[in-house]
Automatic annotation (TrEMBL):
SUPFAM superfamilies: P-loop containing nucleoside triphosphate hydrolases. InterPro entries: P-loop_NTPase. CDD domains: SIMIBI. It comes from the Bacteria. This is PRK06851 family protein.
Amino acid sequence: MKGKEINYFGGGNTAYGFVHYFETNFQQLNRLFILKGGPGIGKSTIMKSIGNEWNEKGYDVEWIRSTKDVDLIDGLIIPQLKVGIVDGTDPYMIEPRIPIVVGEYVNLDVAYHRDALIRRKEDIIHLFDVIQRGYKSVYETFQRALKEHDQLESYYIKEINRDKADQLTNEWIKDHIPEGKRGSNPVEKHRFLGASTPNGPIDFVENITETITNRYFIKGRPGSGKSTMLKKIAKAALNQGYTTEIYHCGFDPKSLDMVIVRELDWAIFDSTAPHEYFPSKTNDTILDLYALTITPGTDEKYASDIQETTERYKRDMKKGIEKLKEVKQFEDKLKEIYDQASNFTTIQSIRKQLNDELIKEEKTL
């Protein structure tokens, strides 16, 4: 029987540029294979092939999805083996925590026909330059959108009842985070539940919370205290000694979108656009922070300003996604050049060597 699968993003195209939290998810691994190699060399293909093989054997797999193309993999973790494989090239630039002992490089560049790439040198340099400038434009556009979002939040921040918000958060913590585990060593994992991609915003909320019995859907407007509440909940869970999954906002990583403590069987998350969901399970619960903490009539009071600001925000977000699509077209051209210069026999040999190492780890279980 197949093992379970969970999908999430380790990094994101945000208003602060590309941000990632890969390393926090590798803390419990005994071995981490860091793939080094240029575009089109098959890093994602190797990881998907190995991950699928072990998943079919009954092992759980964590898929760390790519923001460049959600069908691609930036990393995978097989928890039972305590093994991970990750793309360690730009923009991640992952280094071994303890070289060789825990983390080790796998060089895929040996599979390139160098002469074939040298013949396309000018094309390659041009594409790298265009891609770099493209991402710079994407992040500048998202930064403008963030300023508009901050303006949108300001209308509700002026109308929030902070005492009610604090009371609601404290009561939730008291009811859902039992005391008594202090002194343990909780693991703090940081991730993204969704991301801005060339295909628009994509999230894995349903998959991430699939096995969770108690899900809390936070509703509200920008600035109604959703992220603040989640930060306090995450801090309280860690302080009490519970391993905690902390999911950042794919647009503004300084904000949080979700907190999960699987040991306590609950997930609480921002369930508003672009990752808006509604209860579908027996124990699903809605927490409407607009109704509970914001002055009644706030929407109506600032209606004109809210509408204008929202339109500007959505316009710039749409522009940012369109720019990501343009960048992907150039990245695809670059991958094609490198792909044509790849020795697939060598790549398959590296894939086998990697998988053999996982088989060795299985024998030690």
